[in-house]
Amino acid sequence: MDHMNTIPNSPAVNYQIMNPTMIQNQNNQIHQNYQNQIYQQQQNDHHQIQQNQQQQQLQPQYHQQQQQQQQLPQGTELDQNDLGQILKIFQKYNLKESEEIFRRELNKKNGIEVSLDPSQKEREFYYDIYESLTRFVDSTKENKYELSQVLYPIFIHLYMDMINKDYIKLAQEFYTKYHSIQTPNHALDVKKLKLINNKDQLARSEFKETYGTTKYNVKLSDDSYRLLKDFVKMKNSKPLVDLIKENMMLEIYNGPLRDYRQQNQSSGGLLGEANSNNNTEKIYYGLLKEPEQGEEAEELANEAGDDATEKPKKRKNKRDALLNKKNRQDPNAPQFTRIPLPEIRSIDRINRKQALKDFVKRARLGPESLPSICFYTILNSYNLVNCIDLSDDSSWLALGLSDSTVRICTLNEKLKLKTLKTLNDLESLDKESDDIFNLMFDEHSGVDHRTLTGHSGPIYGVSFSPDKYFVVSGSEDGTVRLWCLLTFTCLVSYKGHNGPVWDVKFGPYGHYFASCGMDRTARVWATDQYQSLRLYADHLADVECLCFHPNSNYLATGSSDRTIRIYDLASLKETQQVRQYTGHKDAINVIEFSACGRYLASGGNDSTILIWDISTSVIVANLTSHKDAIYSLEFSRDNTVFASGGLDNTVKVWNMAKLTKDVEQSEDFTKFTTRNETQLEIGSWQTKLTPVLNLHFTRRNLLVGIGPFRDQMLRRIVKTRKVFDVFAVRNSSSANSNFQYCLNLVKNNDYDAYLTTLITPEEILRPAFAIKAFNVEISTIGKSNIDHRIGEVRIVYWKEQIDKVFNSIKNNQSSNVQFSDPVAQEIYLMAKNYNLSKAWFSRFIDGKRNFLKMQQFKNLDELEKYADTGNVNYILFNCLNIKNVDCDHAANHIGKAQFLCYLTKNILKKPSQIVYYLPGDLLVKHKISQQDLFNFSERILRPKRQNLKDLAFDLCTRANEHIKCARNLSSKINEKAKPLLAGSISCEVFLNKMEKYDFDLMEPKMNSQFRATFLTKLIIAKIKNNY
To answer: Do you know which SUPFAM superfamilies this protein is assigned to (predicted)?
Structure first.
């Protein structure tokens, strides 16, 4: 279990039997034993490498600073200037390998990160370039907004150049002075840049990969370009000219100067505005004219009209305007044979006939007739539901869950989820029957929901095929699976993505589907082939969402690089991209084509909806009334309205008919984004605590909304660290798959530890999840206790992994060392970046190995000694460079209290796992046997209810004494260390709960509102910064 804790200021739990003096003395002795143990382990660890390194003695954590001063012999201390001169010699003679070894040894032995001191001439060079450029931009009044675009790329490249030359202090000073003048569109990027403080971090950063290989696009008018050209000529600075030529792509346009609003609405991409040359290709946005579509539509419309009215036959039925068109080809539509489409089957004709019947009976929507909304809230889905999809006929619902399963549910009681009959029964059916399709299913197999199991990671994308025969899913495990809904089994597992798959979508005609993921690619697949048909790799960050065009000829993708790209599926050219759009200021979560195919809507984390006319590549609407990230967009079937929803728990409906009419009647597109958006918003509805993850218009224009219930307390704490929400994890462009694995491992196994890690200091956030994931891996070894050999195998595995980690660091191997286990990979980076000792990790493994050998603790002292071997706070203190005896003592006490509370809480929840941890003397004292708990049943334990209460009382009393001891040290604890000790809040809440119900573990109300109370206290502690 995790032992990250804090020291609350609320009163302690009162118990009748307490002896603080005795417990304090006892725990001082325990802590002294711990110090001796860790000292001995550290000595053994360093004895193995004495032959290769200078002999040194490793002291406890809070003596390390004194030890570092003794490592260099007297008279050989080197200051920063001396070290800088040595490094300059290495650089002068291009001795890169020697320089790298020298740096590593300095950092390894003395914790020194060298920053070279540039000459006054070099310092003036950087400041002169940027200061003169900023003054020039400020002096151009009318052109200021356009010319300010050049400041950001120059700022980025100058900073990276300083870091690359080891001018760390100069880079930090430069950042402090100029970061505030950068455009707000790159605020997130500028914050990330601050975290880069050495060469290694720069080499691994997305800035080096993105800006080092691709030019930043700057769009300027003729007038602005002339001013910039004159300034560069007057400055006569070759370095400035080289910076602009090598790192910027200047796009010059003819026409009037753009104002700030016009420039801002199309900017925001990771590499600036989209280049206009990328949007010149013709797009066939019209809908396909299928064979016999016109005659079939006319026939079905007449049938539907006959069914829908009882008026005299002499009066002509009024048919739908959309179906009353001549059977002719749309000039903007592609040929039906432009891409291979599946043949129309008889069952498809039946489904289409029913769809058209529903379509002609649809409700006419508009400002005067708003849609009816049916909203489904998914209960008991605490951090479980990641994605949602509805079938085309609105009868089935698919949920992608964090437990690696796909859940299929029916929304129509008459349409149960049935499986096919057996092979023998199918052979006996009358093949000529008109109702052969329905006869194929077993009537007795109908259920309300079914679970599809096969993925090995959370599901982030699900999509039904149009005929409802298949569903496709994408997972964190990097695979895409195709499931058959006739047998509810997996047909194919598609492999190709190198990382989590964020979204999947079926095409409008079935057969084709697409996927996208963290590997920055989008892939197109077919149900009859196991390899991808198309691969698109133009994005610079995670591809978060995608959508097929209604005519199935194009695929649109949205990314964390804040761009939207449209690809021609039929193109065989080297560049298959036909559109690139920028305008969003944060990651894009959802994109959707209109029913007519001409418009594309997008929504993202910037709470903005943008609508493009893909025929002209112009933004025709910029809607900003949502207050949080947008996750769902849907156009009505007749294209008259569209709906939006997201994390602000709001559904909004917009007047698409008015927007379409204005666009078709006007040639001045700039007015669409300047007018008040209330002209388009025709309705807004608020849910209570349900984010809107999916919106769906039925064939009759009923709007269906779906989302998981989310507690307000969880919502507040997640907002303090957005990356850890289930939705934000999905949208984190910089998220590493190994880091995500560790995060999910902690979240799924110890949710209280996951929540307390949200308030961990930013600089050790990644190490915190790495060490806690490692702790989870070690803690789960031997829990079943069925076969000790299994536990031993896992112990040996992790010992080998830790040996490999530190041997790689010892042998000065580069950062490219790869581990098959994601936790081991994160431990490697953690140990290397923070100079950690192998002894810390060996304590975890040795503690578990000793436990497996003895299988039961004799008394509480042995139990607490084992609990302290899994205390992660000692390592995190080391990462923060905190060397304080009181911090160590507080972590020791709270770690033990957490472990005791965990055991007490799970005695009846996980008896087969907890029984081996309970001390033998307490079980004997309270007359409870291991067999009673291992074969847990209420019938057996009900007579021993009082015995269980006494056992729980003893465990809680000891836990409470540890909390009291830790609280007495609160005034002596380093302020920076207090957030790491936030776990004691959960202990306090649990102990109060136990006292309230007289330590009765069988009380049904024991677990009620525990999480809500814990979250409330944790939020208060975070807000007040008072732990």
So the answer is: Taf5 N-terminal domain-like (SSF160897), Terpenoid synthases (SSF48576), WD40 repeat-like (SSF50978)
